[in-house]
Amino acid sequence: MPDFGERIRHLRKKRGLTIMDVEKATGIGHSTISRWERGESVPNSSDIYRILMDYFKVDMCYLLGVTDGVLRESEVIKEIVTRLEILEERAGYEVNEEESK
After folding, report:
1. pLDDT tens for residues 46-92?
2. Taking the alpha carbons of 75, 81, 84, 85 in that order, is the dihedral positive or negative?
3. CA distance 101 to 98
4. Distance CA 21, CA 93 (A)
5. What is the structure's pLDDT at 100?
6. Among 20, 64, 76, 98, which one is least packed by beta carbons within 10 Å?
7. Structure confidence at residue 19 (pLDDT)
8. For residue 10, which of 56, 72, 55 has the smallest C-alpha distance?
9. DSSP 8-state code for residue 16
10. CB under 8 Å to 65, separation ≥6 — which residues?
């Protein structure tokens, strides 16, 4: 499985971002990000992991190479709900809890 640096590089490139783009968005220095991507270091603060998880919309297990799932569970649920709402709109009806009882 890919390591932390490979994951960060993959996420960044998949979105067409430069290291400088990630720096501007997260406040994490470009030299730090570069060292991560080269496998020379890893974050030493849970706050940094949280910033990266929020920015890239992934969970800790993905960042650390434990799983290959990219989206956080909450993001997957939001995506499912959004898609269901679109389908409901197209079908011309709305399902609510009271109707389903």
Report:
1. 889 999 999 998 888 888 877 776 655 566 667 667 777 777 777 77
2. negative
3. 5
4. 42
5. 47
6. 98
7. 97
8. 56
9. T
10. 1, 2, 3, 4, 6, 7
**Of the candidates 15, 90, 4, the residue with the CA atom closest to the CA atom of residue 43:** 4
Identify the burial level of 63 via C-beta atoms within 10 angstroms of its C-beta, where 0-12 means exposed, 13-18 middle and 19 or more buried. Answer: buried
- 48-61 burial, b at 16+ Cβ within 10 Å, e below that, comes to bbebbeebbebbee
Residue 101 has a pLDDT of 47
The model's pTM is 0.66
The pair of three-digit structure tokens given for residue 29, joined into one six-digit string: 């220095």
Sign of the alpha-carbon dihedral angle for 28, 29, 32, 37: positive
Nearest-CA neighbor of 17 among 59, 58, 26?
26
Q: Can you give the length of the chain in residues?
A: 101
Tell me the CA distances in angstroms from 78 to 4, 22, 73, 82, one per residue in order. Answer: 26, 24, 9, 6
